[in-house]
Specification:
Largest sheet: 5 strands, parallel
Order of helices and strands: EHEHEHEHHE
Number of helices: 5
Strand order of the largest sheet: 3-2-1-4-5
Number of strands: 5
Radius of gyration: 17 Å
Shape: globular
Helix content: 40-55%
Distance between the termini: 21 Å
Length: 151
Amino acid sequence: MYQKVLVPLDGSDLAECALSHLKSLVKDGSVGEAILLNIVKIDIPWAEMKNANFNINALREPLFAASKKYLSDVAERLSAQGIKVKTESIEANRSAEKINEYAQENRIDLVILATHGYTGFKKLMLGSVASGVLSQSHVPVLLIRPEACRI
């Protein structure tokens, strides 16, 4: 049994494909608790940094508010189905590294993550959070391909 399962979400339908697999694992009695994680990336406008009145919190606050609202809505849907859920919004520039760091620090037993399934040149050019998580993870990772979202 996986006591703590981490499901990184970015707000996309693709990322939420992982939720159907989470529900299946919960139904089978294989999951104790799910943690929904959203990585908040702050794009700093470097040109404005010279301005003495620049306030980084003015950038952070609406992004974190949107992240927490999104995760709260997803958690509410899952809780209504009897799934024990926590949410976490964390700031990071490198999502894969932060997901792995979070998993290790919080004793996560499994990471469930959707992937675009890019290969070759497309993967090289676009990069892949899923690939980064998989290659660096110290815990098992369940990668969900888009075509697997139909369960």
